[in-house]
Design goal:
This protein has 6 helices and no strands. By secondary structure, the chain is an all-alpha fold. It has one domain. Helix 1 runs antiparallel to helix 2.
Length: 227
């Protein structure tokens, strides 16, 4: 009877601990949802606007290569003085994930969720660095709205900047799709209605539409790709 009583007590204690662990995991996932939803939006915006950004880069390259010496056109925009080139440049936050991964909660997440979120946030860190690098090149090209390159060396340098920018935009686009695959595998993609609403309010999306620049379609996220 004593042994049976001890076993029952241990079982009851385990049930309580399991329930508490489940509650902690559910709370962690709930806290992560806004952060991963924003990352999903960032990745989706990058995918959709990639053709628009590449078209702008091609127009700049053609202007520089023509050697005609005129200023490149500045796209008008109601929110600013205008752009020579516009692309998304949003921050990528991972503060909630850093808190979760630094605690023992991460060991209690389902392996599929842990694996895919770890992969996705690693890519998000790399993506943030790519966006920061691209921002610098976009600023560099902004001078073309007010100054005509005065030397062949400067013209060639700016053409080189556009080639670097083209490569990084393509890399951002590819990584964005992979990140959304990871979120799909973790079952944490943002809701379609919320995502559609946010994308419809994107300044870069509105800019591309206003100037007749091409927009891409959001590629379906494939969960199997992230496993």
């Amino acid at each position: 009877m004593i042994v049976l009583g001890v076993l029952i007590a241990l079982y009851a204690q385990q049930v309580v601990e399991d329930r508490n662990d489940r509650a902690r995991v559910d709370s962690a996932i709930a806290a992560l949802r806004p952060e991963v939803a924003y990352i999903d939006f960032n990745a989706s915006e990058s995918e959709i606007t990639a053709p628009c950004v590449l078209a702008q880069i091609e127009a700049i390259q053609e202007g520089l290569a023509s050697g005609e010496g005129g200023l490149l056109p500045r796209f008008s925009d109601t929110s600013s003085n205008g752009f020579v080139l516009r692309m998304p440049g949003r921050p990528w936050s991972d503060s909630v994930w850093q808190s979760v991964s630094a605690s023992d909660i991460v060991r209690r997440l389902e392996p599929t969720i842990d694996l895919n979120l770890s992969s996705m946030f690693t890519q998000a860190t790399d993506q943030a660095e790519r966006v920061m690098l691209s921002d610098g090149w976009v600023d560099d090209l902004g001078v073309l709205a007010v100054i005509v390159p005065t030397s062949e060396a400067e013209r060639i340098r700016l053409i080189s900047v556009t080639e670097h920018l083209r490569g990084i935009v393509q890399s951002i686009d590819l990584s964005a799709g992979q990140m959304r695959d990871s979120l799909a595998a973790a079952g944490l993609l943002a809701s379609k209605s919320w995502l559609d609403k946010e994308l419809s309010e994107s300044g870069t999306v509105k800019f591309c539409r206003a100037h007749g620049l091409p927009l891409g379609k959001l590629r379906p996220a494939i969960a199997a790709n992230a496993e």
